[in-house]
Amino acid sequence: MNRNRYTFIFSLLIIISLFVSCQKEETHGQGGYDTLSAPVSYDDIILTEETSVYNEPTLEYTVYRVKKDDYIGNIAKQYGVTEDTIISVNGVKQSRLIQIGDYFKIPSMPGIMYTVRADGETVESICSKYEIASDKCARVNSLEQKVALKAGTTLFLPDAELDWVTRQEINGDLFTRPLRRGYYFSSYYGWRSNPFSGKRTFHGGIDMACPAGTPIYAALVGTVSRAGYDTVYGNFVEVKHHSGYKTLYAHMTEIRVKKGQSVTTGTIVGTVGTTGLSTGNHLHFAVYKNGKSMDPRRLWK
Asked: Is 102 part of a structural domain of the chain?
């Protein structure tokens, strides 16, 4: 009798337990919240379908110290920016001359620095020239797109790149060498003792000594602006290039081009000689930008 009573009570408990379990399964997802619209938490940020998320671009800088075997390209890759970015932000003049221990500022996004050239420029007009988004640029610099800016104002232009000429100048890849082989530098650019007067004078080019008759090539695409004879330079050729550049080739034995002729880096403009005021067979090669002489070795491959 007692045994039957215990069996009945045990069976009743099992039935009640099963009933409660079924009720929980039926109400799950209905009584509290719909799982499709439930908030999902990621690192304390709660997102729902009504939430509008916008990542505002911010410009921040990291300081990097140059190590052995570093070059601008691998530093840029490490930080996810471009070579132009590091060159521009840090005012690098010659990319091949960075030194171990130099410090670079690395921005948090690719782009370049820009200095407003004249009163009245706007973020919108500047970005139009560089073909970049003006709204992003305005946010990064905390400026209005159409507000007139003053000359000298410095901006960071996200996603902008340096122009080709500037990049080639800095990387030392703008010009090719006018002599292909068999030469040595007999005099460099800069102050020196004049071989004729003995006085200290400025040498506005470089002298490349080699045998007479060696072909001289144009160092960059351009147009011959002058060709003739000068008492100092002897037989010479001057070539006008883009971006305010000119090159001079002097002391030649023979001139092989004429004024107005278009030239490429494969054009022979003349041959090496010792005409004019010269101490021996060599090419005097000079580079000018907007009338000012530059060291050619900074600008060629």
From this structure: yes
Contact criterion met (CB below 8 Å) for 140 and 158: yes
Residue 296, SS3 per DSSP = helix
Query: Where are the extended beta strands (E) located within 175-230?
Result: 184-187, 190-193, 200-203, 206-209, 215-217, 222-230
pLDDT at position 43 is 38
| pTM passes above 0.70 | no
- Which of these three, 137, 171, 205, is where a domain ends? 171
Tokens of 251: 């002391």
CB 57 within 8 A of CB 109: yes
The residue out of 142, 171, 200 marking a domain boundary is: 171
| Whole-number pLDDT of residue 52 | 38
Sign of the C-alpha dihedral, residues 144, 146, 152, 155?
positive
Residue 283 sits in a domain whose CATH number is 2.70.70.10
Task: Say if 5 falls within a structural domain.
Answer: no
Residues 196 and 165 in one domain: no
CA–CA distances in Å: residue 9 to residues 1, 2, 5, 21, 25: 13, 11, 6, 19, 25
Predicted local distance difference test score (pLDDT) of residue 14: 58
Question: For residue 128, what is the enclosing H or E element?
Answer: helix 123-130
Secondary structure element (H or E) that encloses residue 159, with its range: none
pLDDT for the residue 173: 85
Q: Are 207 and 186 in contact (CB under 8 A)?
A: yes
**SS3 assignment, position 253:** strand
Res 301: pLDDT: 74
Residues 75 and 150 in one domain: yes
The domain tally of the chain equals 2
* Residue-number span of the structural domain to which 240 is assigned: 184-298
* Tokens encoding 122: 């706007």
**8 A C-beta contact, residue 39 and residue 48:** yes
| Mean pLDDT per 10-residue interval, the chain, length 301 residues | 55 56 43 33 37 63 96 96 97 91 97 97 97 96 96 97 92 93 96 92 97 98 97 98 96 98 97 97 97 94 74
